[in-house]
Amino acid sequence: MRAILIIDMQNDFSDFGTLPVKKSLELANRISNLINSVKREQFKILASLDYHPINHVSFNQFPVHCVAKTKGSEHIEPLNNFDYDLIIKKGTKKNMDNFSCFYNGKRESKLKKYLTKNNITDIYVCGIALDICVEATIKDLIKNNYNVFLIEDLSIPLDLNYVLELDKLTKINSSKI
Ligand SMILES: [Zn+2]
Description:
Blueprint: E1 2-7, H1 24-37, E2 43-50, E3 86-90, E4 103-104, E5 107-108, H2 111-117, E6 122-128, H3 130-143, E7 147-156, E8 169-172
Parallel strand pairs: 1-2, 1-6, 2-3, 6-7, 7-8
Antiparallel strand pairs: 4-5
Bound molecules: zinc ion (ZN).
């Protein structure tokens, strides 16, 4: 079984958010097109959300962003209208930050349990930011022996010069999915 994992496509990371990743509004439309084009019986659709309490430890390093239950933590339109198979929240513990959605606080998130239960072996990852949370999540997926595909045209780094190169990572264009 295959899954598409959409990382942190949230309002506070949009072009007009508190921690903006350039062109992510337009990216949301393109990811939405991909989800609408795949057969749901062949792909599970998973999404992660950065989801912090007020006074989260990461706000010492970054501007306040993705506070739980605020508009900023919600998916960018039109990705807020989907019926996801799983939503994974990370960074919900006050004193610990998580870049990889494999973990929430010190513990594993719901992700691995879900992948195991649904016999998912191949994971197609996209979203923002490629050089932070997408990269950290991909590294954990590879470490756990999943077949990982980076959907290159549907992922944007904060540092626009950044390129992700990893052994065992396959890069793919969304038109090939
Ligand atoms: Zn965060």
